[in-house]
Structure formats: structure tokens, C-alpha cells
Amino acid sequence: MSEPNKASIHLKKRRIAISMGILFLLGLIFFVLDIFLGSVHIPAGDILRILTGEAAIKVEWKVIILDFRIPRTLTAVLVGAALSVSGLQMQTIFRNPLAGPYVLGISSGASLGVAILVMGFTSLGFTAVLDNAGNWAMVIAATLGSGLILMLILSVSVRIRDIMTILILGILFGSIATALVAVLQYFSTESMLKSFIVWTMGSLGNVSSGQLRILSFTVLLGILISLASVKILNAMLLGEDYARTLGLDPKTVRMIIFISTSMLAGTVTAFCGPVGFIGIVVPHIARLVFKTADHSVLLPGSLLIGAVFMLISDIFSKLPGYDQVLPINSVTALMGIPVIIWIIIRRKKITSLS
Amino acid sequence: MSTENDILVLKDLEIGFRKGRKIIASLLSGMNVSAGRGELVALIGKNGIGKSTLLKTIVRLHEQLMGKIIFSGRDMQDYTASEFSSLVGFVSTEVIRVGNLSVRDLVSLGRFPYTNWLGKLTPDDHALVDHAMEMVNISELADNNVSEISDGERQRAMIARTIAQDTDILVLDEPTAFLDLPNRFEVLHLLRYLSEEKGKLVIFSTHDLEMVLNEADKIWMMTKDELIEGAPEDLVLNGSFKHLFPGSKAIFNKESGSFSYPREGKKEIILTGSGTAFEWTKKALKRKAYIPVRKGSSIKIHVNNTIDSTEWVISTNNKELKVYSILELIKVCKEI
Fold first, then answer.
1. Looking at the domain assignment, is residue A353 inside a domain?
2. Does any domain span residue A352?
3. Pick from A349, A310, A318, A335: which is nearest to A82 by CA?
């Protein structure tokens, strides 16, 4: 009996390794494509020359590649990975296939944090704060905002066992945040309003190299925490009671996952706006591809698929060859929703946690 | 009542619910029972009496109101979470439906307390998981998803998970609920094996009284006043079972060890004959509220076993009739 067992485990491991390899390759291909494609056509040879540090034919090409396209592409990778990983975590913790940073109102919380900063503080005359410590202030505001919403949901979820109730409460908390944002919008000037609205549409292009450093740091830290929580996420699959009989404290688990999710979803939302659907869709694609519930596979899998998904979305949003750029949020929704519909129709239900 | 050998002792235990510091419902207090290695303990009691709460209290999922729970001489609260997880395994009534979770992965979760921070299984862990699956006879389904196997198979997989957890004590909340008869027997047989052969203390709650009377070493019977402890036979003999369903019309029959509704006898019938068919005829007549007697009735039924079949001869004062099944027999009796 143990020999065929070993064989089937081995086969499964090999299939997973191959899938991971293919995803990684896809990631590389789209990473390169995302750098090569854009509104301004730059010949491939020139791009290679710029990348290898040779003198460029046109100075503005060098600026476009080094200061715009590369940071933007890196941002896409980070955003896709971060949102997918946090979505997977949320689906496991809440044992709900429709959970995700966006649905549970964490992004609304981040919006509130940013709205208070952008429209609240500046209207009180604290523009200097925003100029000097803009990056960190945004990160902190967004993290606090998303953390607040997650904290509310978790504190309620300790008392209520029914997952649908928690989900509805999540939507309600998100709506409160949205309402508060609306109040702030009502009292802000046109220019502040516009900059906030543009922020809500999402953008991968507004991240400067300096900001990219902050984004990478927080996202990598958040992902490290999630990777370290692979074991406890697996234990949470059976629910909190079983997790406890395995020696886990569900409150500690919630805290850890809460910290990493608010770091991932919060900062991404701060820099790029509330990018939707990735967090819900990608974990399901990962389950479809890897056919496992094991987080040591699903987590890196979601990370890679998320990055690929985001790179493709970004290429679409840049409308290569045209002058216009689409808001990234619309592209992810337009790409993500058909995937959800396809999964539902094909499998009759979302294969996941319930 | 408790001896040195007992690895679980409940001392003046009170269970119930509290809200903050206030006790809002006390289910039962003054519980004093114990159990040792190798014992199969059945917890019985009517719905809502607090069986699940008691079991959850024992596995530390629920806080007791008063009293102590002592494992191997140490208060339950003195164990760290990880120590406790290698001492007590638990199977709840919750039906686990996780997409893409294979039986093997489910059973592997039992190794959680022993694996490293990444949860990586060593070759020894793999061997233990395989062994646990073999023990519950589920190895062929190792790569199937838990959401795609039958209720009985899933219950066995959940038990395999606790076997992999390698605990001295196993607590199961209604492990045979929702299962058909063969699966119920299989699960109970498995629990019997784990206690008898592996020396574990197995505690499970159930409503299946007949099975308990045949298989359990010890019964903990929960009534609204007390938790009664004893061998199944003791509880039969001292008449404890009549307290099991207070207010219900069902009566416990000491001879057969089963509950039944009392029926008013209508008519006496003389029943003669022998063998299995005779016993079942008696049972059928009782069900239809006839009183089988030896003499003193005008109706007489004789169960006649021939070589290859059974016939029933019904005779009254003026006629005689032969039928070939109990169904026909009952029909004829009705007409008389």
C-alpha cells in the first residue's frame, strides 16, 4: 500500500513543480512584454541597449523605460501578488469563497484613511505634512484605515459564528467607510476631489522609485508573514474549533493574518487605489490549477498567478500604440469577472471552502 | 470512585454558559466521574441535556463553570496548548466540506502538533499518516477529496486524523449520527479497537442505546440532575435508564435492553411452536397488541417449521387456516 502512495505523492509533487515553473516563465514573459509595450513605441533593440546601460538614441526613451515602465511593471507584480495572497488568506480565515480584501471592506477602510489624509488634513491646512512625509503618511493612513475595518470584522466574528452574517457586516462596515468618504468629498475642494477620485480608479503608474521602495518593503514583509503562516492557514481549513484542538490559538492566528493582510491590501490600496477582483479571483484560479487545499502550494501559486494576472491587466490598460491609458481598476474587473463567471458556470459552484 | 489508573477525572464539575463573568445557564453540576486507559465510554442523554457542552468542556473548547478536569493527575488548565493537543484528539459533529482537500491532507493535519513551522511532514509522519488511513480502512481513498466521499468514509477519515494526532484520549461528538447501520457498526468497531487494542481512552456521545449496551465498557448517563456512571449492565439492572427520558411514555425493557411504547393488549392468542420463526411471530403479535399466551383463548396459532419453509396454522372453534407469511397471519388475525 505504501509504495503506490509514495508514487502518487511524488506524481502530485511533480505536477505542482511543473505548474509553478510554467507560471514563473509566464511571469517573466509578461514582465518583459510589460516593459516593451506602451503608448510610446520604442524599438526592442533600443530597450535592450537602455537596459544594459548603453547610451540611448533618445534621452526621453531612457527616462520612459527606467523611470516609468520598470517601476510600473514592478508595481504590477507587487500589487498582483499582494492582493492575491491577502485574498487567499481572507477566504481561508473566513471560510468563504467570496471573501477578499475588497468585498470585506478593507479597501474601503484604506480609502477612508487616504481620504482623511488627502481631503481632511489638507483642508485643515496641513499640506506641508503631506509634502514632506507624503509616502509614509499615505502608507500609515491606508494601513490604519484597512486595519480598523478588519479589526471591526474580526471582533464581531469572535461572537458570531455564521459566516454570512460576518460577510454582511463587512459590507456594512465598508459602507460606513464609504459614507464617511462621501462626507469628506462633499466638503473638499475640486482639486482635492479630483485627485481622490483618480486615486480610487487605481493606477500602477503613479508609483515613483522612492515609493516603490516603500511598497516593495511592506509587501515583501506582508508576504513573508503569510509564507510563515502556511501551516496555521492549513489548520484553519477545518475551522477554529479544530484548529484549537491542534494546539492553535485562533485569536493569535487572526491577529497574524490580520497584520499581514492589512499590510498587503492596505499599502497596495494606498499607492495604487482600490484594485478590485484580483483578491477574489486569483485564489480560485490557483485552486483550479493546483487542485489542492494546501497553502504551502496555494500561497506561492496565488502569488505567481496574481503577478501574471496583474501584468496582463497592465498591458491591456496601457492600450499599446494608443495615447490613452485605462484605469487599472476597470481592466482587472473586466478581466476578473468573466473568470469568476466561467468558474461558476463550468464547475456549477465555486470550488473552495464550502 | 477514581483510581490511580484513571487518566481522566471530572471533579465536582459544573458546565454551562456564561456571558462575561455572569453565569447565564448552568446545565449540570456536581459531576464526579472518571475513566481509564483502554476504556470505551459512551455518553448518553436526551437532546439538549448538554452532552456536546460536556465533551467540548473536556477538550478545552468550552470553559467549565466550576470544578476540575484532571488528566493524568494534572489539572487540564496546567497543560500548554501544544501539550494538550498531543494528549486529546477531538471529532466534532461539524461536517467538514473543504474543496480540494484530499483525505491524505486531512489525515496529515493530525500531525500538526509535531511538524516544524512550515508543517513539513517527515518520512516518519508520512508513515504514521499511511498507517492511520490503513487502520480505518480508507487508504484507497487517500487521493479523493473529502467533499466527494460518503458520510461514513468522511467520519472514518476524521477519526484517522485523530489517530495520526497520536493522542492517549479520543473524544467524539456523535460519531455515528447520520450514518447507516453498517457504517455505524464499522465506526463503533473502530472505536472498540482503538480502546481495546491501542489502549486509548475513547469517549463518545450517542443516541444509539442498543449499540452502547452491547459495546461500551462504561456509560456516562446525563440526566438533568446528575451524571450517572456505570457499566451498561449495571444501569440496566438498577433501573437507571428510566431516568433517561423523563416525561416520555417510552418504557425500558430490562430483558431486551430496548425502549418501546406500551401497547394496550386487546386479545389473547395461544401461540405454540419453536425456533426463530416462533420468536419473530411473538414479536409481530405483540406489535399488533395481541397477548401471546399458553392457554385460555379460542384462537390458536401454531408455528410449523417444515424442511424448506415455515407455515402458520390458525385455528378457531370452527375452522382452520394455513398462511405462509407473517404479513398474511396479521391480516387474518385482524379479521377474526
1. no
2. no
3. A310
- The partner residue sitting opposite A1, judged by closest CB among B86, B139, B143, is B139
pLDDT (tens digit per residue) in A4-46: 566 777 888 899 999 999 999 999 999 999 998 887 788 888 8
Any bridge partners for residue B258, and if so which? Answer: B253
Q: Is the Cβ–Cβ distance between B170 and B203 less than 8 Å?
A: yes
Instruction: Give bridge partners of residue B303 from the DSSP assignment.
Output: B312
Q: How many CB pairs under 8 A join A and B?
A: 95
Q: What are phi and psi of B92, to 5 degrees?
A: -95, 180
**Does the residue A32 lie in any domain?**
yes
CB neighbour class for B256 (10 Å; exposed up to 12, middle 13-18, buried from 19): exposed
Which of B224, B218, B98, B211 is CA-nearest to residue B161?
Answer: B98
Secondary structure (H, E, C), B32-71? EEEEECCCEEEEEECCCCCHHHHHHHHCCCCCCCEEEEEE
B98–A237 C-beta distance less than 8 A: yes
What's the pTM?
Answer: 0.82
For residue A341, count other CB atoms closer than 10 A to its CB: 10
Average pLDDT per block of 10 residues along chain B, 336 residues long: 75 87 86 93 91 94 91 92 92 85 92 87 92 91 89 91 93 90 89 92 91 90 90 86 75 75 75 86 84 81 84 85 88 81
Give the tens place of pLDDT for each residue, B207-236. Answer: 888 888 888 999 999 988 899 999 988 888
Chain A nearest CA to B332, separation (Å): 55
Domain that holds residue A75: 3-347
DSSP for B107-169, please give it: HHGGGGGGS-TT-PPPHHHHHHHHHHHHHTT-GGGTTSBGGGS-HHHHHHHHHHHHHHTT-SE
CA-to-CA distance for A333 and A316, rounded, in angstroms?
A: 12
Neighbour-count burial for A17-32, b at 16+ CB within 10 Å, e otherwise: eebbeebeebbeebbe
Domain assignments of chain B as residue spans, ordered by start: 6-246, 268-335
Q: Are B90 and B113 in contact (CB under 8 A)?
A: no
- Whole-angstrom Cα distance, residue A230 to residue B117? 8
Q: How many domains does chain A have?
A: 1
What's the rounded Cα separation, in Å, for the pair B36 and B310? 50
Measured between CB atoms, does A252 come within 8 Å of chain B?
Answer: no
Distance CA B295, CA B272 (A): 10
Whether B314 contacts B332, CB under 8 Å = yes
How is residue B69 written as a grid cell?
478536569
Q: CB–CB of B112 and A239 under 8 A?
A: no
> What is the spatial distance between Cα A316 and Cα A76, in angstroms, rounded to a whole number?
12
Q: How far is CA B90 from the centre of its chain?
A: 16
**Looking at the domain that runs over B6-246, which CATH code has it been given?**
3.40.50.300
A260 closest CA partner among A102, A93, A85, A55: A85
Confidence of residue A353 (pLDDT cuts 50, 70, 90): very low
Specify whether the CB–CB gap between A189 and A120 falls below 8 A: no
Q: Is B141 on the interface with A (CB under 8 A)?
A: no
Closest to A238 (Cβ–Cβ): which among B109, B139, B165? B109
Q: Give how far Cα B304 sits from Cα of A96, A274, B324, Å.
A: 65, 85, 10
CA distance B36 to B60: 19
Domain-located, residue A44: yes
Q: What is the CATH number of the domain that holds A216?
A: 1.10.3470.10
